[in-house]
Write the structure tokens for this entry.
Amino acid sequence: MTPLVATYSIAACDLEAGQWGVAVQSKFLSVGSVVPWAEPGLGAIATQAYANPRYGPAGLALLRQGLPAAEVVERLTAADEGRAERQLGVVDGSGRAATYTGEGCIEWAGGRTGDCYAAQGNILVSAETVDGLAETFEATAGRPLAERLLDCLDAAQAAGGDRRGQQSASLLVVERDGGYAGLSDVVVDLRVEDHPRPLEELRRLWGLHQELFGETPREDWVPVDGELRRELEERLARLGHEGPLERALEQWAGQENLEERIEGADALDPVVLAALRRASG
């Protein structure tokens, strides 16, 4: 039998930033392995309830043909004999959105759409959960997409959430060349597979992700003057990294997965400086 992904989710985009993403929480093991799908410039898809995971790749293929979100939903569900028990949200490359809830989905079930988002859920305490997703997204315009999606999940849970409880959560955001080293389209792909408070754990992972892969504006970097240079050399030597400062710093940063925040040794990202001070005591 197709897995019952009783959940709430939001598929959304930030057209100005060129980002598309999906955030989801469910009383279901590893919800991030089933629900979220996204491709930069094309759109984002959430498939749930008695989920049909093929809606993900098939929906992206339809978006690749230039079809709008509403037509993608119509084509996917029309071709699926199990559509009465499916739930689906789609946002296309232009920010148009559509959501679908089959008549066989377990109450409360339904969805809302607006500019650049599709919010939906099933087996919820009430419609207020989906309202929390939608209203929070609308109220947070201008902030980074990943942060908005996390806020949406928190608001939905505060409004009641999945009436069976919590278990897993996921955050996926894509952007053309916006991921690791500019060589990946995946900006963030975080999953909490099984946890009593998955949204809290997802927030913790997001904080770690930002520490490792976030960006501090260059004007906020700390100039490495003579005094700071001596401090850095002493701390790095304490950790077993000696020799020219730039090389020692690169070696340590690579060991700590902070290499994306290093660029020479004339100035230092304050996140890196704080991490080095913690590590060296």
